[in-house]
Amino acid sequence: xxxxxxxxxxxxxxxxxxxxxxxxxxxxxxxxxxxxxxxxxxxxxxxxxxxxxxxxxxxxxxxxxxxxxxxxxxxxxxxxxxxxxxxxxxxxxxxxxxxxxxxxxxxxxxxxxxxxxxxxxxxxxxxxxxxxxxxxxxxxxxxxxxxxxxxxxxxxxxxxxxxxxxxxxxxxxxxxxxxxxxxxxxxxxxxxxxxxxxxxxxxxxxxxxxxxxxxxxxxxxxxxxxxxxxx
Length: 231
Prior knowledge:
By secondary structure, the protein is α/β, with parallel strands linked by helices. The protein is built from nine helices and ten strands. The protein folds into two domains: 2-68, CATH 3.30.1330.30; 76-227, Alpha/beta knot, CATH 3.40.1280.10. The longest helix is centred in the middle third of the chain and has 13 residues, at 96-108. The two termini are 36 Å apart.
């Protein structure tokens, strides 16, 4: 996979991801990045900015692209074996910007495990890696065929399922030290009805303005920090 941007590239290198080659702008000048490339003995190829634009489809590459080993996607059984305390489950998040932003927020809050479905879900991509700004190196992505079946299995493992809904209860209902799965709903439709019906609790973000909705990644950020008991 080709990933791009200074911070994305730096974190990939520091995390030990296999890097096949680095493409640098002819005029690239960032001593810290160049020293890092030298330290890790990464092969460098200097190319024109036009070539970088072509490789990234005009992405915000900041003059650097890495050709790296693909990111691994895990199974639900892997998650159960890992036994994380807090998990995010994404219900049809189709916008790569939202997906990348959720990954970045989750990692910043210390939440490392995210479940996605195989269909009707943004897939890991160079753009998502860029939006996540290096956080993709430190989270685990688990892919499942059926979110409902995944929820049932997680309930069997004593996870409490938390969904967000406009008619839910106060965020303060989420207090307590227990295993949690936080469901983040689709950008337009929210959480699917079958997942709502199988949630142990539905919570809402209080809003005092005239708008009654938030961008999916903004809502996710507030809820993630709440389940981590950081706010």
